[in-house]
């Protein structure tokens, strides 16, 4: 029996005003997958993620979470159904402590225990060291660790990540990429990850969805895209 996708977009068309952004997008993410939404600037990657989260409502088409039509449900209702997000630019609550930011990540849960904090502290020891520090005083890399840890505090079935490592220095970025890959391997956490970085997508993803001008041009494993590009755009984009 085929597993029900954790998130699915069916025939989605999304507009900003009169501008047609997503065009007939069909996308699914199955349990345990690490799917990278890959593409250049303004190709529709972030809009796809916002459509999944309910920040953007498609003009036509549907969004499903675990087989349930959530197209017209608010973001908060989708979060209560097991979705968490690591937004672009982190968006921590700077005047609050690291610990308070983590507590906010678990606001939908009634069963939070000390072991939940120990889990994210084990993943990110620097977060444990900085737990009483104001989040706005942390370095960029430390803030990104807190953003990921905050999302994990929700114990989501689906983790959405929008260019989480884009603004970091190369050393910090590489370290966090490897940590995220370890988290996925160890837990089987389902992840939908937006990136413009080809190497990042090839390193992290079990499946890549390549977008161009709001359309999916190819999807498959990293090896499939590299060895069997379906058109010249894919071949040129991947180099």
Q: Round the Cα radius of gyration to an integer and report it.
A: 18 Å
Total strands: 10
Mean pLDDT: 93
How many H/I helical runs? 10
Key descriptive features of the protein:
four-stranded antiparallel beta sheet; six-stranded mixed beta sheet; 239 residues; alpha/beta; 10 helices; 26% strand
Give a brief rundown of this model.
The chain has 239 residues and is of the alpha/beta class.
Describe the structure.
The chain is α/β, with parallel strands linked by helices and 239 residues long. It contains 10 helices and 10 strands. The protein has helices spanning 45-53, 75-80, 98-105, 114-123, 125-129, 140-152, 170-187, 198-204, 222-227, 232-238; strands at residues 7-16, 19-29, 34-38, 60-65, 68-69, 83-86, 158-162, 190-195, 207-212, 215-220. Helix 3 (98-105) packs parallel to helix 6 (140-152).
